[in-house]
Amino acid sequence: MENWFVLKALLTVVFYVLCDGELVCFALIVGGKEYYSMYGHVEKLAEEIKKGASSVEGVEAKLWQACVYVPETLQDEVLGKMSAPPKSDVPVITPNELSEADGFVFGFPTRFGMMAAQFKAFLDATGGLWRAQQLAGKPAGIFYSTGSQGGGQETTALTAITQLVHHGMIFIPIGYTFGAGMFEMEKVKGGSPYGAGTYAGDGSRQPSELELQQAFHQGKYIAGITKKLKQAA
C-alpha cells in the first residue's frame, strides 16, 4: 500500500541561513498528511533533512504547513482504523509565500511512479509565481517515499523535475556524494542520485537508519549549496 491517497496538506520546513548578516531562507516542502505521509515516512525523512540543513553553520530551521487545495479523501473514522497519525497543528504557508525562500527540497509520496496528484495540485497553484518567474534561479532538491522497490524511486524524481524546469529553478541532485551508502547491496535501501527516499511497503516498514542518514546528508548538502549561491549573488 503506497501512502499517497490521504494527502491533504504539505509540511514545509523553512531554513534561515545568516550569510554576512543577510537572511537566506531555505524551504523544505514535504508532501504528506497534514503532516501527511499517512504513516509518517516522508515526515521522518523530512526531520532528518531538517537536521542535516541545521548542521550547516548559520542555519536555523522552522516548520510550516502548506495547504493543498483538495479535500480529504478518507473519513477520520477510516483513518483511525488505518492507524494514521493525528493531524498536525504546524502553521500554514501558501503557494505565493514560496517566493520568500532562497532554496527548496520538495518531498512527496508516489502514485504510479510519479508524485501524488495532491502534491501536483499544490504546484499547480503556483501559476502566479510562474508568470512572474519568482522562483527562477533558486536551487531545489527532491525526496520521496514509494510503496515498493519498483514503485518509482527514480521515475518519481525524474518526472517531478519538469515542475522545477518550468519555474526556472536549479535542480540539485545528491549524485553519489553520500559515498559508500549509495552502493549498499545487502539491505533494502531507498533513494537514488536524484535524492533521498524510502519504501513504505504496507505502511509497517519505516525508514532504515541508512535511509535516514542519506536524508540528513541531502539536507546538509543542499543547504550548503543554497548558502554558497546566496553569498555569491
Describe this protein's structure.
Its EC number is 1.6.5.2. It catalyses: a quinone + NADH + H(+) = a quinol + NAD(+); a quinone + NADPH + H(+) = a quinol + NADP(+). It is an enzyme of class 1 (oxidoreductase). The structure is a single chain. The chain is α/β, with parallel strands linked by helices. 30% of the residues lie in helices and 24% in strands. It has a single domain, classed as Rossmann fold. It contains 6 helices and 9 strands; from the N terminus they run ββαβαβββααβαββα. Strands 1, 2, 3, 4, 5, 6, 7, 8 and 9 form a 9-stranded mixed sheet that branches. Helix 1 packs across helix 6. The longest helix has 24 residues. 50% of the residues are buried.
Overall strand count: 9
Output mean pLDDT. 78
Overall body shape: globular
Number of domains: 1
Structural class label: alpha/beta
CATH topology heading: Rossmann fold
The H-and-E topology, N to C, reads as: EEHEHEEEHHEHEEH
Q: CATH homologous superfamily? A: Flavodoxin domain
Rg over C-alpha atoms, rounded to the nearest angstrom: 16 Å
Low-confidence stretches: 1-24, 31-37, 69-73
Domain Flavodoxin-like: 31-222
EC number: 1.6.5.2
Transmembrane segments: 6-30
Family: Belongs to the WrbA family.
